[in-house]
Structures are given as structure tokens and as C-alpha cells.
Amino acid sequence: MKSMTKQEALAALRGQCVTLIRFDDFETAKAVSHAVAEAGIGALEITFTVKDAPRLIRELNEEFGDSVVVGAGTVMSADQVELAYENGADFITSPCILPEVGAACKRLDLLCSMGAQTANEAYQSHLAGSDLIKLFPGSSIDPDFIAAVKAPLPYLEFLPTDGVDYSNISQWFASGAYAVGIGSYLTSGIDKDHLAEVASRCKLLLNAIK
Q1: Assuming Cys at both sites, which of 9, 30, 153, 179 could form a disulfide with 111, CB separation 3.0 to 4.6 Å?
Q2: pLDDT one-digit tens code per residue, 157-190
Q3: Pairing of strands 91-94, 17-21
């Protein structure tokens, strides 16, 4: 299964809400992924903490085609990068700065986003291979951080993740976020019996950035 190239994924993710799918149960993860996509959010990050995450990435890619960008999250090794790529992942994210992950993504022409919380870490993440700097957890960072760091380092692009919700998403984008990662706001307390609530939360997010 073919992944998007780095440039294709960068173009597809600009201005997107990337939903983190992090459930223990495979079927719940898949059902919530479909609910999010059907509500109009066009990017999903399937974390490697999901049981059979590579299979879920592959199945979602087969079902959505090019209409949804599907990536792999919580990627902690070059082997996991390879596994994600083999199953069609369009991008890779990690909460940590891992040079072996960055190198594997570069070799495979996969978009890479590794974690940071400070200006120094953001630059180190860039040096290690990040195309987008994953600001994580976003709940402990002020949205104005992006504009402040981009003043001296304008070539860095940021993906704040977690801590982003309908009340602050417009502020994140106004400060210069390339895209945003939506974690617990969309998925907390959700299971297969509460998919309508997922759609409602998605609508609030999308309305907040119109």
C-alpha cells in the first residue's frame, strides 16, 4: 500500500485538525475514526498504542482512499516507521525526539513530526528530521509560543497536539500553527455507543475555525 510522499502529506495537512485515535479496543478505534471522518475532519493519527495499529492504518486507507490523511502516532523506533509505511501511513509522529525515526522517515520520504516543548527542543526536533514540530502536550504551552519562536526561526512549522479544543483552536492557528492535533477533547469518554457526541464535538471544532 502506497503512502503519500512528504510533500503530498504536507499539502494535505495544512490547516487540518489531526485527530489522535488512542483506544485499547480495535473496533472502537475504527468506529471513532469513521465518525470523525464522516463529521468532516480529514486527518487521523492512529497511535501505536492501539491494538493492531498497522492493520487499522491499512484498513482505513483502503476505506477512505485519498479523502482522509491517515498517519501513525506514538512511533518510537525505525522498525515502527517501516511497519507504518508498509501499511500505508501518510505521516509519522512521535512525542519524543528520536533521530532513528527521523532518519527512517527521510529515507522513505515520509512526513515526520517529533515532539518539543521549548525553542531549543523545537530546533533539535527539526535537526533530527521533523518536517512539523509536534508541540506536546499543547495543554502546557501558550499558543503565542509559536509566533514567538517563528520570529527568529521562521522556517519551523508547528503541530500543537492535545490541549487544543474549540475554545482555543482559532488562537493556535492565528499564532501560526500549520495544523493542530486533537486528542482527549474529541475522544475522552467516547465509545461505540456515543459516536453522535464525537460528531457534535467535531462540529464545534470546525465552526470555531471557519
Answers
A1: 9
A2: 999 999 999 999 999 999 999 999 999 999 999 9
A3: unpaired
